[in-house]
Amino acid sequence: MAKNFSEMTWKEFGLAFMVTNPGCSAEYRTGDWRSQRPIADKSKCIKCGVCYLSCPDGAINLAADGTYDFDYDHCKGCGICATECWTGCISMVEEEN
Amino acid sequence: MAKKIGIEVSLAISEAVKLADVDAIAAYPITPQTHIVEHLSELVADGDLNAEFIPVESEHSAMSVCAGTSAAGARTYTATSSQGLALMNEILFIIPALRLPVVMTLANRSLSGPISIWNDHSDLMSVRDTGWISIFAENGQEAFDLTLQSFKIAEDHRVMLPINVNIDGFTLSHVIEPHEFLSQEEVDSFLPPYDPPLQLNPDKPVSMGMVGIPEIYFEAKKAQDVALIESKAVIKEVFQEFGEKFGRTYNVIESYRAEDAETLLLTMGSIGETAMEAIDIMKDEQGKKVGLLRLRLWRPFPVDELRELVKGIKTLAVIDRAVSFGGTGAPVGGEIRSALYSTEDRPYVASFIAGLGGRDVTIKDFMDMVNLAEKMETEQEVHEYKMIGVRE
In sequence order, what DSSP letters do the residues of B16-61 get, joined into one string? Predict the structure, then answer.
């Protein structure tokens, strides 16, 4: 985790506040505004990967057994994976908090 | 001394841009800037300048392309005037925020309406707070020299800010003047190739123009403001180096016959030439204790230099060429009052607006303004600004 922005002075940011380590948003938990989370009934999964391909945020990862896991630190809960899943193994459930 | 060449000021600026060996030009033609970019497009088409000339459908696009080419590490140039500058407005704020060293010639022209193609400074004043360095040229030679110096200032890693070089539309842009050109070897010895500290490059990617959430935006603006203020030291350094190399030394405020003056005129741009003639007549034929300050650097405003130059002066008459409608002062006059307010023994500041929309400002006008300013000083007249030369 990079240093918290809100603690940095104006002198500590680089030229024009450019980000010189692209992809660093992965260091931040950007999934915390999610209101619904996807869950999977893996018994129905045919390992087609359509969820992985359709996720707009790269928040679905290939698991060792060929199925897919959700990265809840970065998933925004958009529900596209649940809509696209051919076998209906993904469903959206309310976040409790 | 190099040979002097009689050439239109617009073309001399184009030649300076060619000598600076720019990589990219994106521009849209608008009177009175047209000849500058027209000539540059010819230089590129004829193979005399190895640069991308990118024709665009509007000034908004021109400045957007400049942001892209400069971000990619290309030495980038554009030029515009008046309505064109107004159309660029949105992107004008982005360029300094991204710290991109774009150089732009601004052939100053009044803003509509009424529709006017003629000269005043209302276009620049409408973008005063965009964060660009603003420099004024008074004649063709200055325009040529300052164009070359601007690339060096803008691209200095301590600066990394865009610059607009202001030349009065028609009064300078369309006039043929003698210019002392520099050779390519001389320019190369002064201006190194652009070495961007960060650029859009797939081999070493960066992200530019990120969102500024409330925890960041304020710090970003502070950093930008400090960068602009601190650029003054580099501007003075480059002016000095240019003077040592080529014999023409520039100052952030030029002073003319001000040694024993009690009253000073202050101008920006080409009317300074007429003002100098007025000063000569008043000093030599009328024995008046007058002098002239010509403000070259508008942003960052040279506060310290101004305070030093007006020490012991009784009356300072500031001549603006734009209106801040309904404001407490004209742009330059108000700025100068503000700069001097906290100083001891400050001069009386008379703020005049003259020469709007191409109206001539004559030698007699300057003499009248000196006399009026002195009368106002004697009476300690309270005023915001007075328009000179308008029919009452």
Answer: HHHHTT-SEEEE---TTTHHHHHHHHHHHHTTSS-SEEEE-SSHHH
> Residue-wise pLDDT tens for chain B (392 aa)?
578 999 999 999 999 999 999 999 999 999 999 999 999 999 999 999 999 999 999 999 999 999 999 999 999 999 999 999 999 999 999 999 999 999 999 999 999 999 999 999 999 999 999 999 999 999 999 999 999 999 999 999 999 999 999 999 999 999 999 999 999 999 999 999 999 999 999 999 999 998 999 999 999 999 999 999 999 999 999 999 999 999 999 999 999 999 999 999 999 999 999 999 999 999 999 999 999 999 999 999 999 999 999 999 999 999 999 999 999 999 999 999 999 999 999 999 999 999 999 999 999 999 999 999 999 999 999 999 999 999 99
Helix (H) or strand (E) holding B15: helix B9-19
Q: How many domains are there within chain A?
A: 1
Residue type at B291?
Answer: G
A-facing residues of B in 210-249 (CB < 8 A) are 210, 212-213, 215-216, 219-220, 222-223, 226
Residue A85 lies in a domain: yes
Task: Identify all chain A residues contacting B208, using CB atoms and an 8 Å cutoff.
Answer: 16, 18
Q: Give A-chain residues touching B216 at CB under 8 angstroms.
A: 5, 13, 17
Would A52 be classed as within a structural domain? yes
Contact A10 B215 (CB under 8 A): no
What CATH architecture is B4-246?
Answer: 3-Layer(aba) Sandwich (3.40)
